[in-house]
Design goal:
Helix content is 27%, strand content 28%. By secondary structure, it is an alpha+beta fold.
Length: 337
């Protein structure tokens, strides 16, 4: 994600959730913008403290530690997120599954030390993986696991959830135009980038070429919407000449392959992040499922082309007003939906 640099902006950033979060305002437009941005980033920090799997003191860690033994009470907003994650699990046919933490651990990606598990390890991890093993008590706002060893991991939706909360806070503070991103792969924007003049729409962000990280593949205009991109360009390991990335296919228990990057545009950042992960897992066959024709979700899937070094860009629910592919060689574009 790269914002248009020809427009003057005020950017306030901080490290959070293992990446760089930035709040981007139009310069001179919002009084006390720096203070508002700090408050928004403080909110992101507080959410990370609650949902991280890397701190034993987090609410999610407490759930993982106790829900295999007895019912665990859950805060209202976090419980609503868990319920929504179940709906996304159903929508994607299990391609998005927050209850696959045992698989992430078995493959070494929890500690960013990827490795291939033994057959026995993988069998045990798969037996403790999957949302059907998570029981949600809607009336009591409680959760329990139906067998020991289940682990919830919100890594595929947490950044987007935090960004949504920060955007909601800033909008409540009277901010009309702002963009927030986390690690450039999770983005949400409201209002207009630059002066609000006739003909200017939304915020323009760049989509990186998955094979050439310093090259922009496309420009996307976000109008009161969010963008999530999934790919395994940075977290992977090589075994016997095969690249194995950190994005798991919960249905098979193995790392997904065959896709270079998956991008989803949706009204909220949490959904964009989750559905981008699911689309990466599902591949081209999942485009119509993730971004059905005429719906509020759009998608861009980048897969290898037949020619070495070239890519095929598959799009769904996107027109020229929203998506502009950068001219260049080695890029084939196909509109699927």
């Amino acid at each position: 994600m790269n914002s248009d640099l020809e427009l003057h902006t005020l950017v306030v950033g901080r490290e959070a959730m293992a990446c760089r979060f930035e709040v981007v305002f139009n310069a001179g437009e919002v009084p006390h913008a720096t203070g508002l941005a700090i408050d928004a980033l403080d909110l992101v920090d507080s959410i990370e403290e609650r949902i991280t799997v890397y701190r034993d003191s987090s609410e999610l860690a407490a759930i993982n530690a106790g829900a295999g033994l007895h019912w665990q009470p859950v805060a209202e907003d976090l419980f609503e997120l868990l319920v929504h994650c179940r709906k996304l699990f159903d929508l994607t046919g299990g391609a998005f599954d927050i209850a696959s933490g045992s698989l992430v651990r078995a493959w070494g990606f929890l500690k960013r030390q990827g490795r291939t598990p033994s057959d026995e390890e993988l069998l045990l991890a798969r037996a403790a993986s999957g949302m059907p093993l998570v029981d949600l008590d809607l009336e009591g706002r409680r959760v329990r696991f139906l067998r020991p060893g289940v682990e919830l991991n919100l890594g595929a939706i947490g950044k987007g959830w935090a960004i949504d909360a920060a955007i909601q806070k800033l909008a409540g503070d009277g901010v009309a135009s702002v963009l927030i991103h986390g690690g450039q792969s999770s983005v949400r924007a409201i209002g207009v980038q630059g002066p609000d003049v006739p003909g200017r729409r939304g915020w323009r962000v760049g989509l990186r070429h998955p094979l050439r990280p310093d090259t922009r593949l496309a420009t996307i205009t976000l109008e009161k919407s969010a963008l999530g991109t999934s790919g395994s360009g940075t977290q992977f390991f090589i075994e016997r000449g095969q690249k194995l990335g950190h994005i798991m296919d919960p249905r098979t228990g193995r790392p997904s392959d065959g896709v270079l990057s998956a991008t989803v545009i949706a009204p909220h950042a949490a959904d964009a992040d989750a559905l981008a992960t699911a689309l990466y897992v599902l591949g081209p066959a999942g485009l119509a499922q993730i971004a059905p024709k005429g719906g509020t979700v759009a998608a861009i899937l980048v897969v290898p082309a037949r020619t070495s070094g070239s890519v095929q860009v598959l799009t769904a629910n996107l027109d020229e007003r929203t998506l502009a592919i950068q001219p260049g060689t080695g890029v084939e574009v196909t509109r699927v939906v």
